[in-house]
Write a structure and sequence with these properties.
single chain, alpha/beta, eight-stranded parallel beta barrel, 14 strands, globular
Length: 302
């Protein structure tokens, strides 16, 4: 059976290193964080102590594959010059902060076109990313474009959107990249994909979907997964995460993804709601991340 690298998004309240400790407590192997308050455009500068404690915690706790998610305020697809330029500066800051911490990837939603058109939004995102990558040339941290549910005017709910952005930025077909030959990769969110209409509930449908993704983007660019169930139906275009096995996505879908040897070394992060659930056998309250991780591991016999 495939051995998965599983983890969750954790709070940085009390210090970045606290997220790593929380990940260890929950039984994670990897962790996703915000490197600052997600509701602020620019965070307080990182200190050498911040970096030291974060890196030391990873070694002490045995947590690998740290990843960060950018602020939800950022919108590289905005038709407003003021917001667009502010978003470019903020995303550059996100990449630089992650680079300081030794985090290899920053996940971002491509953007929303709001009052413009989808194509204008895609063009705007590509130009914004070109500027970001030029201004951060030389750093190790790379960007992962996350597929979206397609709610409102959000772009990226079709992988073709992401392929178009990458081709516009890099000047080549996305699938032409191999190994680490890229600065723009993909983070695949299961809830978002399901809400956008991607059905991967059977081996045949899963194979068809991944074959299509390989053709238009290249599976080599898939460097992270968000493992979330969905509250709403297939194709609903509603972004609402649910606990594993309590939403609309069949457990078979998760089993197929987790058992795919092509993604064995790609970390997978929960972004499910926090809280606790009573264990029916013990009567004790259990952390929801612990329960969700156990459910996922049970699907592949871990």
């Amino acid at each position: 059976m495939t051995k998965s690298i599983l983890g969750a998004h954790m709070s940085i309240s009390g210090g970045l290193y606290r997220a790593v400790e929380a990940a260890e407590t929950a039984g994670c192997q990897c962790v996703q964080i915000f490197t600052k308050n997600s509701n602020q455009w620019k965070g307080k500068a990182l200190t050498p102590k911040d970096v030291e404690l974060f890196r030391e915690a990873q070694e002490r706790c045995g947590i690998s594959h740290p990843i960060s998610h950018d602020s939800y305020l950022i919108n590289l697809g905005s038709p407003s010059d003021e917001l667009w330029l502010k978003s470019i500066a903020a995303f550059e800051d996100e990449l630089l902060r992650a680079n300081e911490l030794g985090i290899p990837f920053v996940v971002t939603h491509p953007g929303s076109y709001t009052t413009s058109t989808p194509q204008e939004g895609l063009d705007r995102i590509a130009e914004g990313l070109r500027r970001v990558l030029e201004h951060t040339d030389g750093i190790q941290t790379r960007c992962l474009l996350e597929n979206t549910a397609g709610q409102g005017t959000n772009l990226g709910f079709e992988l073709e959107h992401i392929a178009q952005i990458i081709e516009s930025v890099e000047g080549r077909k996305p699938a032409e990249a191999s190994g680490d030959d890229f600065r723009l990769g993909v983070c695949f969110d299961t809830c978002h994909a399901f809400a956008a209409g991607y059905d991967f509930s059977t081996p045949e449908k899963y194979a068809e979907m991944t074959s299509h993704f390989d053709e238009i983007v290249g599976l080599a660019r898939f460097r992270a997964f968000h493992i979330n169930d969905a509250m709403k139906d297939l194709g609903s275009r509603v972004d609402r995460h649910a606990h594993i096995g309590e939403g609309k996505i069949p457990l078979e879908s998760f089993r197929l993804l987790l058992s795919d040897p092509r993604f064995e070394d790609v970390p997978k992060y929960l972004e499910t709601p926090k809280g606790t659930k009573k264990n029916e056998e013990t009567g004790l309250e259990e952390d929801r991340d612990v329960v969700n991780l156990r459910t996922l591991r049970s699907l592949i016999g871990e």
